From TrEMBL:
Similarity comment: family membership: Belongs to the phosphohexose mutase family.
Listed CDD domains: PMM_PGM
Pfam families: PGM_PMM_I, PGM_PMM_II, PGM_PMM_III
Name under which the protein is recorded: Phosphomannomutase
All residue ranges annotated as the Alpha-D-phosphohexomutase alpha/beta/alpha domain in the record: 13-142, 175-274, 282-393
Top-level taxonomic group: Bacteria
MF annotations from Gene Ontology: metal ion binding; phosphomannomutase activity
GO biological process: carbohydrate metabolic process
Entry cofactors: Mg(2+)
Length: 498
């Protein structure tokens, strides 16, 4: 039986995520084909209200990544859309950014789109992301969709969906961007050896349909074949084994550059020819260095856990402003959009996770578009006998860093977390410890040897604590001091600090 409580449990911030198939003990299926059918139908109703168009005048596109349950769930979503009278576009295997672009491209001109993905989560999971011309839906929109879906019965129809070769169109869009950026019409990447690791997700097209036609040598590229079992490594640029896999491939094949994507290609990281990984602070720094000449003095919005060393690089080396905001890619993107609307030029919103959105690309978090920007810069530097590493040669990294996730044991986790943060700030002031201000998320304490940030998790009953130190041994000292400050606070388990 489908009820509102059950459906609302599928909300994951601004997305829908759930268990779509058996296979993991203790995880019961809750994202069934019928549920996807209901939610897709609810999305059409939502679009009718937002656009003022009847369903028969709407076009809604559906695509998916490489997950095992993709085909069955896509079929149900398309059935529900077509049954409302809307035009249903079947995009098949696609990336999340491509699904947004189905709204932009003249050939498709969708009013809305649905991407079936659960990013890098295990094989038994799946989910739904939704787009309109204004970008991805917000948390309140998802709640409205799920609430409305309770009253919608699964629908089917004899009307077929319209096939759409979206990823081919999207690849052409990316190729054109590279050609325009480098200033060559034929094969601007000729002479460059670039390896792609798609992690058996949806990103293999970037090697075969973007890089190879532009003249790049893609030999050594790996795990390009879609496989929802993810047999080689988790398709996540932040995963240690995934990063080691692309680093090894770059070194072994003596490539100029390596690119690694997550399952639905909205995130990426890179590896330089010497095997150095470009992720987290380094990826933010490199993207900012690429953009700085075109956006002098602009503001780069990041999440809250970026390093002080990154701030120094952005502000002292590049002459930009660093706005360290909240975790959550939608939070970062929305803040950048807000600033831009207020007249503060903000060309880049980017999380340490690899979610990066550019103002020049609809503020869409698009790993492939970030890769395009890197490739344009790499090709220009290659022609000068340099490599991408020169862009961030002066970026320093903290000597040590650590994240500890502290369980919140109180029944109302968020309320307890708020009390902990208030009390932590009081105790820090009494102890004469510096407190960063403004802090857009949690409490950041400034120590002589580094900093610590305690915040509430976006989704889980946890309080992550991020610590960075400027010298060896400093993280342990800061953690010891944090344990003293947090000792005895009700509802927070600090045993991991001792």
């Amino acid at each position: 039986m489908v009820d509102e409580k059950m459906l609302l449990k599928l909300q994951n911030g601004s997305d829908v995520r759930g268990v779509a198939m058996e296979g993991v003990e203790g995880e019961n299926v809750n994202l069934t084909p019928d549920v996807v059918n209901r939610i897709a139908g609810s999305f059409v109703q939502w679009l009718e209200k937002r656009t003022g168009k009847p369903a028969r005048e709407l076009t809604v596109a559906v695509g998916n990544d490489s997950r095992i349950t993709a085909d069955s769930l896509r079929y149900e979503a398309l059935q529900a859309i077509a049954a409302t009278g809307a035009r249903a576009l079947d995009c098949g295997l696609a990336s999340t950014p491509a699904m947004f672009m189905s709204i932009i491209f003249e050939e498709t001109q969708a009013d809305g789109s649905i991407m079936l993905t659960a990013s890098h989560l295990p094989f038994n999971r799946n989910g739904m992301k939704f787009f309109t011309k204004d970008g991805g839906l917000e948390k309140a929109d998802i709640k409205e969709l799920l609430t409305s879906a309770v009253t919608i019965l699964p629908q089917s129809t004899d009307r077929g969906a319209h096939p759409c070769a979206l990823i081919t169109r999207y690849a052409r869009f990316l190729r054109d961007k590279i050609r325009d950026g480098i200033g060559e019409d034929s094969q601007p990447l000729k002479g460059m050896h670039i390896i792609v690791d798609a992690g058996n997700g949806a990103g293999g097209f970037f090697a075969t349909e973007v890089l190879e036609p532009l003249g790049a040598d893609i030999s050594g590229s790996q795990f390009l074949e879609p496989d929802g079992h993810f047999p080689n490594h988790i398709p996540n640029p932040e995963n240690k084994e995934a990063m080691e896999a692309i680093q090894s491939a770059v070194r072994k094949n003596r490539a100029d550059l390596g690119l690694i994507f997550d399952t639905d290609v909205d995130r990426m990281s890179a590896v330089l020819s010497d095997g150095r990984e470009i992720c987290r602070n380094a990826l933010i720094a490199m993207m900012a260095a690429i953009l700085a000449p075109d956006y002098p003095g602009s503001t780069i919005v990041t999440d809250s856990v970026t390093s002080d060393e990154l701030t120094v690089f952005l502000e002292k080396e590049l002459g930009l402003k660093h706005h360290r905001f909240q975790r959550g890619y939608k939070n970062v993107i929305n803040e950048s959009i807000r600033l831009d609307k207020e007249g503060v030029v903000s060309p880049l919103a980017i999380e340490t996770s690899g979610h990066g959105a550019l103002s020049e690309n609809y503020y869409l978090d698009d790993g492939a578009f970030l890769a395009v920007k890197l490739l344009i810069a790499a090709a220009k530097l290659h022609n000068e006998g340099k490599d991408l590493g020169s862009l961030v040669a002066t970026l320093r990294e903290p000597a040590e860093s650590k994240e500890i996730r502290l369980p919140v044991t109180a029944e109302d986790a968020h309320a307890a977390g708020d009390v902990v943060l208030v009390e932590l700030e009081k105790r820090a002031k009494a102890a004469g410890i510096g407190i960063a201000s403004p802090s857009y998320e949690g409490v950041r304490l400034i120590f002589p040897q580094g900093w610590a940030l305690l915040r509430m998790s976006l989704h889980d009953p946890l309080m992550p604590m991020n610590v960075e130190g400027r010298e060896k041994g400093s993280v342990a000292e800061i953690i010891k001091k944090m344990a003293e400050l947090l000792d005895g606070l009700e509802g927070l388990d600090i045993s991991k600090l001792k």
